[in-house]
Design goal:
GO molecular function: aldehyde dehydrogenase (NAD+) activity
Strand order of the largest sheet: 3-2-1-4-5-8-12
Strand content: 15-25%
Helix content: 25-40%
Number of strands: 14
Oligomer: single chain
Number of domains: 2
Structural class: alpha/beta
GO cellular component, one term: cytoplasm
Radius of gyration: 20 Å
Protein name: NAD-dependent epimerase/dehydratase domain-containing protein
Order of helices and strands: EHEHEHEHEHEEEEHEEHEEHEHHHHH
InterPro entries: Epimerase_deHydtase (IPR001509), NAD(P)-bd_dom_sf (IPR036291), NAD(P)-dependent_oxidoreduct (IPR051783)
Length: 335
């Protein structure tokens, strides 16, 4: 593996950005966090001497190039609203043009399982067809294709290398955008947890803090680029079992309010987010499980936190945090 230069985290303020930044800092590496607003970046990274804080306007090509200036690697974590997925491809196109112009050498997209569509048998390897049947899957696939097509793109004497790291649904301490975060909050505060059903189907989740060291290693593994990779969780679990373990830590019986596809459609009449969840509900009824043996072969074994340990950490974080809107009658959150 090669030593590597400065890494930029584009869209850094979210949970994944903070986790990857922590791994870079632990490795003694300087990094740049890039976001639209300075305040959340200061709150998340202002304490770390390894962090440089930069704001950008992703609609402005000059701003993108300026944000990428002097970086060797860019990790792309930029999200869009769940009902605005059509923004993903044009935003990626502008970003790739900007980072190429800035002379960035490596580009990592943190991706999802959406581009695969329905699984043809589990677990699936990287050679599974990418045949999304949903709008969101098609937009994510278009985004990925732009990233992989940019592999080898030249700017002066520099060539850009790209890869996609595909993750399943995630969870962890204080990660509000997790599909199952409401379970930990409900258990911690003795409330009914709102979840997206069905709850008795096996599902794969990755403990999000585990991704940091893997991504850090990929920034200095040049042979990884030019393709996509899987980073899997530690097997599968049902949401009911997550709830059983979480509520048991509180000495309580699980209390769940389950929204299935029919209820999501009804809620969608009044709540745009609920309406957007309907098309992706197939991932709850038809499990898709990732095989990451190829990545393990490339970079060696990596830490995978057990569900038991991860649930305990997530529960403890919820217990120590202020009660959120979700446990005070708010709606379920998207994954």
């Amino acid at each position: 593996m090669q030593a590597t230069g400065k890494v930029g985290l584009f869209g850094a303020a979210g949970a994944a950005g903070q986790i990857i930044a922590a791994a870079l800092s632990a490795a003694g590496r300087d990094y740049r966090v890039v976001g639209r607003s300075r305040q959340p970046l200061e709150a998340a990274f202002g304490h770390d001497p390894h962090a440089e804080i930069v704001t950008w306007n992703p609609d402005d090509p000059a701003s993108i190039s300026a944000a990428a200036a002097g970086l060797q690697s860019v990790i792309y974590l930029v999200g869009v609203a769940y009902d605005q997925f059509a923004e993903h491809p044009p935003l990626m196109e502008r970003t790739l043009e900007g980072v190429t112009a800035a002379g960035v050498e490596r580009f990592i997209l943190i991706g999802t399982v959406y581009p695969y569509g329905r699984a043809r048998g589990n677990p699936i390897s990287e050679n599974h067809p990418r045949e999304p049947h949903t709008f969101k899957g098609k937009m994510r696939l278009a985004q990925e294709k732009l990233v992989l097509a940019a592999h080898g793109r030249a700017s002066g004497s520099t060539r850009l290398s790209t890869l996609v790291l595909r993750l399943p649904d995630f969870y962890g301490p204080g990660i509000e955008r997790s599909l199952i975060n409401g379970i930990f909050e409900g258990a911690a505060h003795g409330k009914r947890a709102q979840v997206i059903g069905p709850v008795d189907v096996q599902h794969e989740f990755i403990y999000l803090p585990d991704i940091g060291p893997v991504v850090e290693k990929l920034t200095r593994t040049p042979e990884a680029y030019g393709r996509w990779w899987h980073l899997a969780g530690t097997g599968t679990i049902t949401q009911r079992e997550v709830a059983r373990q979480a509520y048991a830590l509180a000495g309580r019986e699980p209390k769940l309010m389950v929204a299935g596809k029919t209820m999501l459609r009804m809620l969608g009449l009044f709540n745009p987010l609920m309406r957007e969840l309907v098309e992706m509900n197939y991932l709850m009824t038809e499990p898709l499980v990732l095989d990451d043996s190829a990545l393990t072969k490339l970079i060696g074994p990596f830490v995978k936190t057990s569900y038991e340990e991860g649930i305990r950490h997530a529960f403890n974080a919820a217990r120590n945090a202020p009660e959120s809107a979700a446990t005070q009658g708010g709606t379920a959150k998207a994954a």
